[in-house]
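pls ignore typos typing on phone
nicotinamide-adenine-dinucleotide + seq
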Amino acid sequence: MAQREPIGVVGTGYVGLVTAAGFAELGHEVWCVDIDVGKIERLRGGEVPIWEPGLEELVVRNRDRLRFSTDVGDALEHARLLFVAVGTPPTYSGDADLSAVRAVVGAMPASDRHALVMKSTVPVGTGASIKRVLAQEGKGGFRYVSCPEFLKEGSAVADFLHPDRVVVGDDGDWAGDAVVGLYAPLGAELVRTDIASAEMVKLAANAFLATKISFINEIANVCEETGADVLEVARGMGLDDRIGPKFLQAGIGFGGSCFPKDVSALKQLAGNSGYHFQLLNAVIEVNELQKRRVIGKLHKHLGTLVGKRVALLGLAFKPNTDDMREASSLVLSARLQADGATVVAYDPVAAGEAGRLMPGVELASGVLEAVAGADAVVLVTEWSEFGELDWQAICAVMSGTTVIDGRNALDPAAVRAAGLTYEGIGRG
Ligand SMILES: NC(=O)c1ccc[n+]([C@@H]2O[C@H](COP(=O)([O-])OP(=O)(O)OC[C@H]3O[C@@H](n4cnc5c(N)ncnc54)[C@H](O)[C@@H]3O)[C@@H](O)[C@H]2O)c1
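k done
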């Protein structure tokens, strides 16, 4: 493989580590930097601290090209492009917390041979403000590129290697050309644009996907009132080319580290700029209410929840990840406990993180252990293994008969054939 230029990646979380391993796979030496000393030590020891399909293999295969450090100076010494992939969590106001991004920018020396390439999701205007700060500090030679990330946890490695598109927002200088060159081997459609538009593409894309989810959830809720089945409705809608079948799965709402915070950040950004983004208010409100609809369904079947035992299957915010950020299971378990229920839960990979985030919840090591003695079972995250459950065996150990399918992922006939009562979301 031809020698490719070394690059730096600051932040070794879901985005940073996948980006680093992906570029290493393309032949680059990658200098990975994180302030989390423990994480860097684990990575140096060959351990991958997050659970993401295919990532460990990629890191192991490219071990010789991946360097790990807590000192951004190491990356600056070896690479001219520094990808920034630090977290931008929400503040109490709903704005994006840019303190980690600012810390990275603040650590940059004066240089006319380096560029920051922003992978973190940031509000529109962040690039302009970073360039202003760098110029005020006499570091105006530092270039800036916006290169938002669209990978999905659970398929992040495949998404890096086969992106739908690559968006590069820049000032038309060497740095933008270099980033375009880095991604060229992937053969993806390129959107090269200005920095503000690139920043907006990311926020608008996530807000649109979240809107699609809240829309189908509202259709599901109307289906419940009118006797229609949202699965049939979504199938009929999704076959329309203009709509498409993706993100039309009704359920108990979206969570995760991106949609909730990015929708809220766009709403805040609009508000701060003097525009009231009405639609996004509704998207957020519908999602919050949707997470709680399961409680109403449980009341319908069980009456009071005081003293009832409820088993949650799946805790991660979606399948194939250990990420619990903003997971629907967090809201659900807290509400159930507040209503007097005992909550027992099982997740194939997220149990460790869940133990820390869900005080009072009993964690089981398997499905049968979780449902033993339960008055009701709620499917929260549609891990594929839950599609093949032995409902006869489950029925034999449950105390009650209620099964709430929060993701419409179970086979209602199989559940009912075992003598259990099935209820999904929006299924008439
Ligand atoms: N997770 C996703 O699916 C996804 C997808 C697209 C975009 N994004 C965006 O990418 C960014 C990163 O997300 P993530 O999920 O990878 O976050 P993460 O929390 O998994 O990782 C962030 C990492 O940055 C490190 N960090 C924080 N401050 C630092 C500093 N000053 N210097 C060096 N390292 C520092 C943290 O220790 C952590 O390891 C966010 O802006 C997010 O919105 C995330």
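DSSP finds 17 helices and 14 strands in the chain. Residues 195-226 form the longest helix (32 residues). more later
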